[in-house]
Amino acid sequence: MAEMDIEAIAAQRSTISGHASQTSLYVVTVIFTAVACLAILARVFARTVVAKQAGTDDGFIFISGIFSVAFCITTYKQTEYGMGKHAWEFPQHDKAVIAMWFWASVWTYYAALGFTKLSILLQYLRIFPQINFRRLCFAMIGFIVLWSLWTVVSALVMCVPIHAFWTAEDFFNDPRCLPRLEVWYANAAINIVTDCMTALLPVGVINSLDMPRRQKNLLLGVFGIGLITCFISILRLVYIYPMAVNPDQTWHSPLLCIWSAVEMNVAILCSCAPTLRCLVQRFWPKFLDSLASSGRRSARDDSAATAVGSASSLSKTSSDKSVDVARVEAARVEEQPAVGMLSFRRSLFKPFSGGAVLSLATCYGGKPDLEEMGAQKKDDVELGNGIKPEGITKTTELEMH
User: Fold this and answer.
1) What is 171-190 written as a DSSP string?
2) What are 49-86's pLDDT values in tens digits?
3) Whole-prediction pTM
4) I want to staple 115 with a disulfide (CB 3.0 to 4.6 A). Which of 35, 64, 206, 319 is the partner?
5) What is the domain range of residue 323?
6) φ/ψ (deg, to 5) at 83
7) Per-residue b/e over 263-273, b at no fewer than 16 CB within 10 Å?
């Protein structure tokens, strides 16, 4: 009779199914967690061994990886005790054990997201020197810290005492517990907003850089890849409802766990992606060289086309002179490097506030192309403001192709 009651209530409370097979739970969570951990290890290697520029952001993403592994373990334990099956298909004791592991998965999920977002924002601070942009980053960091504390604490003490989360007979109406649907929806909404804000934060700065459009678009793609996490967060939002309102929780929770694991680990991958360039540069240099030459040719072609177009406009008054101007201008552009990339590189060597001299390449381990910059010696490289670098042991730059 109790089983029939659960089935009837479940049918009334949710028309959206959150069910997925136990095999799906195992495969998705393990694969995404493993890939994220490999990306973290590659990032740590790139920063500590190749670029020798490890920072706080790397430590934060490492902590996020620990929480990601913890979430994977909680998902495995829930599945082991019956998640993916109907609530009446296993003993009451196992239901309590599943609920306990689910409680652990909630706050580990929030903790992983918080550390990942902080890692991305700290990485922005290492890369971009613009004062207004850095102020926005610090404001975002402050908000993310407060939001992460709230989400973790609210998950830990969702019920008071804590064990009421997995021992309460009627979790939906237990006065000792917070209204979980409202709390989870509010947290998810703020999570989506902060995901989008974090991903879009550097767009304005990158668009203002004086560099070829091709390279600028690639930079936007690298940093904008975090928007993928926003879409995943929205998909996850759909499956909060059937899990939160349905008494047959073990049947309707798998998809929520799957999308939580995907979101968490994809966010880690997005955070690590911009830092792995130096590995490609070290082990596959020809790949970057081919893209570099392609970008320079594109920049020269654009400049030559502009020069020819300007010369053609003069043909109305003097056709012979316009042809000469076009030829001279095109030849000059072919002989010179891309001016946009040159000015961009020089601007990167300007000192930041706080006395630290960093550039976009500090995170990537690139080296300045002195030949292209027209310098015969490394000492001839001048800062954008005319001051030569002092006290810099390693000069680096970004050439995102």
Assistant:
1) TTT-TTB--HHHHHHHHHHH
2) 888 889 999 999 999 999 999 999 999 999 999 999 99
3) 0.73
4) 64
5) 285-380
6) -60, 135
7) bbbbbbbbbbb
